[in-house]
Design brief:
Blueprint: E1 24-25, E2 27-32, E3 38-43, E4 46-51, E5 54-61, H1 70-78, E6 80-84, H2 91-96, H3 107-111, E7 115-116, E8 125-126, E9 131-143, E10 152-164, H4 177-180, E11 183-185, E12 191-193, H5 210-217
Antiparallel strand pairs: 1-11, 2-3, 2-6, 4-5, 5-10, 6-9, 7-8, 9-10, 11-12
Bound molecules: flavin mononucleotide.
Residues 26, 39, 41-45, 59-61, 69-71, 95, 98, 100, 185 line the site of flavin mononucleotide (FMN).
């Protein structure tokens, strides 16, 4: 089948698009508002952009009335946010934090989550989460939509601090992803989580060239200065 997105003539009972870029890890973003009140919300239109230094982005659609999300407003106001990794065990609590609470409502409290101080930024971390990225705001890219909700604010942040709970670090220095079971979004109301990791180290010459292999691993700081 083929459909044009502007015509949306896919003819399927359910919209297919969000099932195509899958699985999407879920940015679980904690921020502070102008009064210092905590906010927490999930964003699955999320990815890392580069690694030396590390940058991430997530995309916040506007609300049905065209208003920007609390997360967007808080980040632009304070210049800081934290990404807290969502795991399979945290699914229900993550979902509670997605409710359309009024600005100023603390979703940590609504979901029964514990705040843990950050090191380099002011927004607190989700203590129950195994990995946190402390971020400084870089910029917002606004994409025009075909509806109020379709308007999207893409937030880019520079990762300035990384927390990984020691219990999830393997003796070989890798993160124990199978133990963490990171949760990810797919289309519809479907989710998945990572329970199987396999290693693929190609033996061809292209992958043996030192810098290239380091780049594939994301070895921040391993390269000569520009
Ligand atoms: C798993 C999941 C993923 C979500 N991903 C997004 C997303 O990528 N973009 C978005 O605008 N909203 C997303 N939402 C909805 C927001 O979390 C929701 O609008 C929330 O109320 C925003 O909170 P805030 O206004 O405090 O930022 C997602 C919800 C869930 C449950």
């Amino acid at each position: 089948m083929f459909y044009e997105t502007e015509k949306n003539d896919h003819g399927l009972a359910r919209p297919p698009f969000k099932s195509i870029a899958v699985p999407r890890p879920i940015a679980w973003i904690s921020t502070l508002d102008a009064e210092g009140r905590a906010n927490l919300a999930p964003y699955s239109q999320f990815t890392n952009l580069t690694f030396d230094p590390p940058y991430i982005l997530f995309s916040a659609n506007r609300d049905y009335d065209g208003a920007r999300k609390d997360t967007t407003n808080n980040i632009e106001l304070t210049g800081e946010f934290v990404h807290n990794m969502v795991t399979y065990d945290l699914l229900d609590k993550m979902n509670i934090t997605a409710a359309a609470f009024e600005p100023g409502v603390d979703e940590f409290e609504a979901a029964g989550l514990t705040k843990e101080p950050s090191v380099m930024v002011k927004p607190p971390r989700v203590a129950e989460s195994p990995i946190h990225l402390e971020c400084k705001y870089v910029t917002t890219i606004c994409l025009p939509g075909t509806s109020a909700v379709g308007n999207a604010d893409i937030i880019i942040g520079k990762v300035v601090g990384v927390h990984i709970k020691d219990e999830y670090i393997l003796p070989n220095g890798k993160i124990d992803i199978e133990k963490i079971k990171p949760l990810a979004r797919m289309g519809y109301s479907d989710y998945t989580f990572i329970e199987k990791v396999f290693e693929y180290v190609p033996s061809d010459a292209a992958h043996d060239e030192g810098d290239r292999a380091l780049g594939l691993e994301g070895a921040t700081g391993a390269f000569g200065k520009k």
